[in-house]
Amino acid sequence: MKPTLVLVGRPNVGKSTLFNRLTRTRDALVADMPGLTRDRHYGLGRVGSRSYLVVDTGGFEPLAKDGIVAEMARQAESAIAEGDALLFLVDGRVGLTPHDKQIADTLRRSGRPVYLAVNKGEGANRDTFSAEFHELGFGTPYVISSAHGEGVRQLIDLVMERFPEDPEDQDADEKGPRVAIVGRPNVGKSTLINALLGEDRVIAFDMPGTTRDAIEVPFERNGRAYTLIDTAGLRRRGKVFEAIEKFSVIKTLQAVEEANVAVLVLDASQDISDQDAHIAGFVLEAGRALVLAINKWDCVDDYRRERVKAEIARKLYFLDFARHHYISALESTGIGPLLKSVDLAYAAAMVKLATPKLTRALQTAITKQQPPRQGVFRPKMRYAHQGGQNPPVVVIHGNALDHIPDAYRRYLERSFVETFKLQGTPLRIEFRSARNPYADKDYP
């Protein structure tokens, strides 16, 4: 198994910057302000031929008793408990603080091996820069610069020495479907993640904007691997003021682009809003498979339930391909069927369609309804083949296909979806017309 390295420290010491460097990604949000990271964030790193898991945590406040800070501390404590080695980051420019001493006491009681990294030491005299941190009692402090990479490779080499080399240490992609949980703020996205996992893996707090980053959580159910992505709630553009929130919106949109399936979470206790439709439209534009989860179903009466169903049919009519599930993330009801629909949507999005079957389905659709004439000519569609997955793309070849109307394109899309039973994913069609060999010839 890959060793798990956990990054711990007070806010704004450079943990997320180091996480990005170790994973060679930009997955963790980084900004010059404390408290940006809240949940624990997993990534895969590699040094030489050895790979490892690295966990980014929020600013650790061991003495916090309540509020969002206490939730962040609980997340950090969970990461410490599952870590094989702890990388304790301190800020060499600020120097040793009482907060650092509190964290050191907590880490010492954990029983895990601790490596003290004095960050932001680019260009500094290493002995002078780290001298006061000997007081923490973790042996020789290692001076690094997570922003510039100085000393990072040497530190990780040292950490990895304590772990035996795994002959099966490979990066085989066994993560399964990537599932992005999206929706407006405070509709229960993080609670749904925790319900699926059966543990409080991400912070679920009764305050809009609790989740800031796109947090990836690998898990397994019934022998199948998944990667869940908890995203920040998307508000209307005019209500996004803070720089952090603007970063969060970008990370959410990127998470949808990189996912295989999106689960759009709606709040049954509130009206279906234009913003819900905008989020659904973005998922559809990205071509991602979709499942609708109407949350807090246990909190509304029969009249409200009927109203919600009517609003979905009226405002989200363009999502008729997606399965609907009425759930309670807090009570963990309706979760099993939801995951089955995710499996079906993923299978539809990644389906492989043979050219002969596609061409036969195309000819059947044309027999039922021919494309409308364009002037004196009627477009002639000869054959079809698959041009991509996630979403499925059907490429149709023929003559005079440049002006086929959108209504007929939608008719073909529905025909293919019904023929191949592709529920849960949009399908796209591309037309490619053969070049007329006589178009450029001059005749007397």
Quickly describe the structure:
GO terms for molecular function: hydrolase activity. This is GTPase Der. The protein folds into 3 domains: about 5-160, 3-Layer(aba) Sandwich (Rossmann fold); about 180-350, Rossmann fold; about 355-435, GMP Synthetase, Chain A, domain 3 (2-Layer Sandwich), CATH 3.30.300.20.
Written description of the protein model:
The protein is of the alpha/beta class and 444 residues long. It has three domains: 4-160, P-loop containing nucleotide triphosphate hydrolases (Rossmann fold), CATH 3.40.50; 178-348, Rossmann fold, CATH 3.40.50; 355-433, K homology (KH) domain (GMP Synthetase, Chain A, domain 3, 2-Layer Sandwich), CATH 3.30.300.20. Helix content is 33%, strand content 21%. The chain is built from twelve helices and 15 strands. The strands form three sheets. The chain has a six-stranded mixed beta sheet, with helices on both faces. The protein has a six-stranded mixed beta sheet with strand order 8-9-7-10-11-12, with helices on both faces. Helix 11 crosses helix 12 (406-420). The longest helix is centred in the N-terminal third of the chain and has 16 residues, at 67-82.
Could you name the key traits of this structure?
12 helices, Rossmann fold, 444 residues, 3 domains, GTP-binding, alpha/beta, six-stranded mixed beta sheet, GMP Synthetase, Chain A, domain 3, KH_dom-like
